[in-house]
Design brief:
Layout lengths: L4 H19 L3 E7 L3 E6 L2 E5 L1 E3 L5 E7 L4 E7 L2 H8 L4 E9 L4 E5 L13 E4 L10 E6 L4 E6 L7 H11 L13 H36 L3 E8 L2 E8 L2 E8 L5 E3 L13 H16 L1
Parallel strand pairs: 4-6, 9-11
Antiparallel strand pairs: 1-2, 1-5, 2-3, 5-6, 7-8, 7-10, 8-9, 10-11, 12-13, 13-14, 14-15
């Protein structure tokens, strides 16, 4: 007679509890992440220990399990121990798509790899000092994280420098002209190209805003908003509590449309001098 499912579940929990008790006091090899965290597999279940001493250790180490939540570093793992650990997991080729001081990110080299279902970028653990942007690397996937293993020896060594130089030139994706580029390399390039283009546009808008703000504040006015119109800015600003909208040329801020009647003399003024004219007109209107 079949046992109820609840009994089977209780048996599984009992086996896990027994394995956890046996785990305490043993030494184990695992990678430690920032903040003092290591993950281990006990009875087929991934368990995370969130209290590791020392908390600032990162990398592969041999740890002693002090409890189900605490572990102490015994010593850093050797290169051979690290290699044996990583070889337990399937290998996947990734392309480095972003780097910062703390993290690296990557995309699959070949999107047709049916073993993995990856949407967007993944965090590439422990790669920071070993890779550059667009490098192709071998990583190992443990079911949760992708761990840097080594540079992919099968990759074209000249492809990554080509892509980095193309990014400096801001070469459009469609204009990349290097035989043998894989889908993942094009994806990584597209991600960085878009991010850099957005940053350049944001930087340009910040510079434009500062320039318009300085021109207006020099005359005692306050910028409220602006919009680009081809070679012009449509500027909204306040002068002594009154709101005005003027169109000025990007190059030298020469007024194209003042927003007030200047008898066709709009282009004789720039944004700063226009504010002075407005004030003068207000004073004359008050007398």
């Amino acid at each position: 007679m079949a046992r109820p499912k609840d009994d089977k579940l209780e048996d599984a929990f009992a086996r896990l509890a027994q394995a956890e008790r046996a785990f305490v006091g043993t030494e184990f090899l695992a990678p430690a992440l920032r903040g003092g965290r290591v993950a281990v597999r006990i009875a087929g279940v991934v368990c995370e220990l969130n209290n590791v001493t020392p908390a600032d250790f990162t990398g592969f180490g041999i740890f002693r399990a002090d409890s189900h939540e605490r572990a102490t570093l015994v010593r850093p793992a050797t290169m051979g121990e690290r290699r044996r650990y990583l070889q337990l997991f399937p290998r996947v080729s990734l392309v480095v798509s972003a780097k910062s001081d703390r993290d690296s990110f990557a995309v699959p080299l070949n999107s047709a790899d049916a073993r993995f279902s990856v949407q967007g970028e993944v965090t590439l653990r422990f790669a920071e000092d070993n890779v550059q942007l667009f490098d192709v690397v071998s990583a190992r996937f443990d079911g949760t994280s992708f761990w840097f293993d080594q540079p992919d020896p099968r990759a074209d060594p000249a492809a990554a420098p080509y892509l980095r130089q193309a990014l400096v030139r801001m070469l459009e994706l469609a204009k990349l002209d290097r035989p043998g580029l894989m889908p993942g390399q094009r994806t990584a390039y597209a991600l960085r190209y878009r991010a850099r283009l957005e940053q350049m546009l944001e930087d340009a808008r910040t510079r434009d805003e500062r320039r318009l703000r300085d021109a207006l504040e020099h005359a005692g006015a306050a910028l409220r908003d602006f919009a680009e119109q081809r070679d012009e800015y449509r500027v909204t600003y306040e002068v002594d509590g009154e709101r005005y909208v003027s169109v000025v040329r990007k190059g030298d801020l020469t007024v194209q449309t003042a927003g007030i009647c200047l008898s066709g003399l709009d282009q004789q003024f720039d944004l700063t001098s226009l504010v002075s004219v407005m004030r003068q007109a207000e004073r004359e209107g008050e007398t």
